[in-house]
Amino acid sequence: MALKKISKIKELLPVNLAISEEMGMDDYRASILLFLSDLALVDGDFPNGTLTAKNTQDIRDTITSNALVHAVQELEVKHETQAKEQKIKDLNKKRSYSPFVVTASGS
After folding, report:
1. Which one of 2, 42, 43, 67 counts the least CB within 10 Å of its CB?
2. What mean pLDDT is predicted for residues 80-86?
3. CB 33 within 8 A of CB 45
4. CA 25 to CA 21: how far, in whole Å?
5. Cα(96)–Cα(19) distance, rounded to whole angstroms?
6. pLDDT tens for residues 16-72?
7. pTM of the complete model
8. CA 87/CA 81 separation, integer angstroms
9. CA–CA distance, 11 with 8 (Å, rounded to integer)
């Protein structure tokens, strides 16, 4: 029974791998590759198992790198926004202290 399940899994993994690649689901693809790597190693296919494990790590490194880039970009935007808000507050404060405040009259 367990061998039938493993055979069915081996059939479905390449299909799921192709779908995950097509849909850009990198984390899911990495999980499938890791499972394929484990199966290859269990079957004694060490070169393929090792290569697949390396591909899995490369994908996970890319995911991590992309997440870090996104986090840094968010922090930069937040910092720039805060700096601009502070500059506006400073300018408004400076303008409110100016003895020559010009106001528009309605006449």
Report:
1. 2
2. 95
3. no
4. 6
5. 61
6. 999 998 998 988 889 988 888 988 888 898 898 888 889 899 999 999 999 999 999
7. 0.60
8. 10
9. 5
